[in-house]
Design a protein that fits this description.
- By secondary structure, the chain is an all-alpha fold.
- The chain has 2 domains: about 130 residues, Alpha Horseshoe (Leucine-rich Repeat Variant); about 110 residues, Serine Threonine Protein Phosphatase 5, Tetratricopeptide repeat.
- It is about 65% helix and about 0% strand.
- It is built from 15 helices and no strands.
- Helix 5 runs parallel beside helix 7 and helix 12 runs parallel beside helix 14.
């Protein structure tokens, strides 16, 4: 008996699989959770109501999806289609040749308009942007950090998580400094999160940065950054009684 041939991975097959798994009641919950109302950061985003483990299973089943089809999914108004496209791109990047990795990296940066919610950024930026720049020039991240686009700024800081995991902190610190005066809460949270990740690996490095900049930090950024500090030190930062480092 001949082995059963798998159906080719196409954008139509992906969309059919997702619609078969849609859950309207869960979609309503996600619409509220991801702030999709007028004036909110996720305004207009539409959800099918599919949980992440189910999406990952669909992504595995369609991991050979052509890049052009992944781009089509990234342009979709449906959140899960964009999320699934990123899951597939991450998998293809990990398995790809150097040429394929460069194509996916360029595709990613050319389609940031579809990477437009915090879960999409946080899932993908370290695994594509951060990984790709691990042994390359990273100046383009500074440009992204100064973008008028909220999600490009979040990509810039969250991508550095990949560097942090390799004990490379300077890019995170540089971008955090660029974003100190950012007005958006989602950037405050992302910067604080990355500073906290530095602290997990090098507490002295994080504390030194915070002593220099904490007075200018948005409160949310500071709270996220010091979450793992001892209570006494955390209180001192929040009360503004921590001394700045001595100038040499």
């Amino acid at each position: 008996m001949k082995p059963r041939e798998e159906a080719p991975a196409t954008v139509e097959a992906v969309r059919s699989a997702l619609r078969d798994r849609a859950n309207p009641s869960h979609a309503a919950v996600l619409q509220r959770f991801f702030k999709t109302g007028p004036g909110d950061y996720g305004e207009g985003d539409i959800f099918l109501g599919i949980k992440v483990p189910v999406l990952r299973a669909v992504a595995r089943a369609h991991r050979t999806l052509p890049l052009d089809d992944a781009v089509a999914l990234l342009a979709s108004p449906l959140h899960e289609e964009r999320l699934l496209a990123l899951m597939i791109l991450i998998d293809q990047y990990k398995r790809g040749t150097d040429e394929m990795k460069s194509r996916i990296f360029a595709l990613y940066l050319g389609n940031t308009s579809g990477i437009n919610n915090w879960d999409l950024v946080d899932l993908s930026a370290p695994h594509i942007v951060g990984q790709h720049l691990l042994d390359k020039d990273r100046r383009m991240l500074r440009k992204l950090a100064r973008s008028r686009n909220l999600w490009e700024r979040r990509i810039a800081i969250v991508a550095t998580h990949r560097f942090i995991r390799n004990d490379q902190f300077q890019d995170t610190l540089d971008i955090a400094e660029i974003l100190l005066n950012d007005q958006h809460d989602l950037i405050h949270k992302a910067v604080g999160w990355m500073l906290r990740e530095i602290g997990k690996r090098d507490h002295a490095c994080e504390e030194s940065f915070l002593r220099k900049h904490y007075a200018a930090m948005p409160r949310t950024m500071l709270r996220y950054a010091i979450e793992r500090f001892p209570e006494k030190l955390r209180t001192a930062f929040l009360c503004g009684t921590v001394s700045q480092p001595q100038k040499t």
